[in-house]
């Protein structure tokens, strides 16, 4: 069984070109499946869908719905691979339903909350100026935190108010930046970054005190500290700035397709969750402004 999983992961890498993180997730899911089969005294991958249902039922007891959905996706692809390779004669996954994902509306920050966050970093210090530039850029562009920490100096086109961003699946896109965010990034590059990198020449735009590229954990930790210090009670993560960016655009009349392109979503259904937040805003405006609202 282990050999078949290894062959499948190789297939995902060479023939399908799936992202390394997806390959690792699928491998972990399938190893969990194999371990459970071994505990049930099974030495081959079952073709009886009832066996797989029993496994998934056990996973539902301990894992989040999103994790179980991903596990089902891994099993679907794996069994199609097994069928193609002749390792099984039938595909039991055709009888397994994918559970519907519950839609959780992402948290966003209001205008005053954004203003309070932006005003908090001490811009007289290199790290404070860096943090202000980071928050301004994330809110102005909707970048994922992975895109921010992966941003290289050669991807900045600040004279044109543009960024060249490498997103999920190594897909590149051009992202416009507001003049205000551009000015903060330029100020960081002039006044703070040279002090942080000293004699080094890192490719990363945003660096830590030692001149090395920031990690997502560092961004998360810094943002949490600032949010706590300004008294915002919401559960805020770097992704909250991305959510706030998308929501403000839709509230102000941006087309959903435009927001999809800016966020780098491959499927517009991913972007559509923001319409729920936008609709809430429209209802609130209606009740506030209509004479009989």
TrEMBL record:
Subcellular location field: Cytoplasm
Keywords attached to this entry: Cell cycle, Cell division, Chromosome partition, Cytoplasm, DNA integration, DNA recombination, DNA-binding
One of the GO biological process terms: cell division
CDD domains: INT_XerDC_C (cd00798)
One term of GO molecular function: tyrosine-based site-specific recombinase activity
Origin superkingdom: Bacteria
Active site location: 144, 168, 239, 242, 265, 274 (o-(3'-phospho-dna)-tyrosine intermediate)
UniProt entry tagged with the keyword Endoplasmic reticulum: no
Subunit structure: Forms a cyclic heterotetrameric complex composed of two molecules of XerC and two molecules of XerD.
Task performed by this protein: Site-specific tyrosine recombinase, which acts by catalyzing the cutting and rejoining of the recombining DNA molecules. The XerC-XerD complex is essential to convert dimers of the bacterial chromosome into monomers to permit their segregation at cell division. It also contributes to the segregational stability of plasmids.
PANTHER family hit by this protein: PHAGE INTEGRASE-RELATED, TYROSINE RECOMBINASE XERC
Family: Belongs to the 'phage' integrase family. XerD subfamily.
Protein name: Tyrosine recombinase XerD
Organism: Lacticaseibacillus zeae DSM 20178 = KCTC 3804
């Amino acid at each position: 069984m282990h050999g078949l999983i290894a062959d499948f992961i190789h297939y995902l890498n060479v023939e399908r070109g799936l992202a390394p993180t997806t390959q690792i997730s699928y491998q972990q899911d399938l190893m969990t499946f194999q371990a459970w089969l071994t505990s049930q005294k099974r030495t081959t991958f079952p073709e009886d869908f009832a066996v797989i249902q029993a496994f998934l039922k056990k996973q539902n007891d301990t894992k989040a719905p999103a994790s179980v959905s991903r596990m089902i996706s891994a099993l679907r692809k794996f069994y199609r691979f097994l069928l193609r390779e002749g390792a099984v004669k039938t595909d039991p996954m055709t009888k397994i339903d994918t559970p519907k994902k519950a839609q959780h509306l992402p948290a966003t920050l209001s205008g005053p909350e954004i203003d309070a966050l932006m005003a908090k970093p001490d811009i007289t210090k290199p790290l404070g100026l860096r943090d202000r530039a980071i928050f301004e850029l994330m809110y102005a562009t909707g970048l994922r935190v992975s895109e921010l920490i992966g941003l290289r100096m050669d991807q900045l086109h600040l004279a044109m108010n543009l960024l060249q961003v490498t997103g999920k699946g190594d897909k590149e896109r051009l992202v416009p930046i507001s003049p205000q965010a551009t000015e903060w990034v330029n100020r960081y590059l002039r006044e703070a970054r040279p002090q942080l990198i000293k004699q080094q020449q890192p490719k990363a735009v945003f660096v830590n005190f030692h001149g090395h590229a920031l990690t997502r954990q560092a961004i998360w930790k810094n943002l949490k500290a600032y949010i706590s210090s300004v008294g915002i009670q919401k559960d805020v993560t770097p992704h909250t700035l991305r959510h706030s960016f998308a929501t403000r655009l839709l509230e102000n009349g941006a087309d959903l397709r435009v927001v999809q392109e800016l966020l780098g979503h491959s499927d517009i259904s991913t972007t559509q969750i923001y319409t729920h937040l936008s609709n809430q805003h429209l209802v609130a405006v209606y009740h506030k402004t209509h004479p009989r609202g």
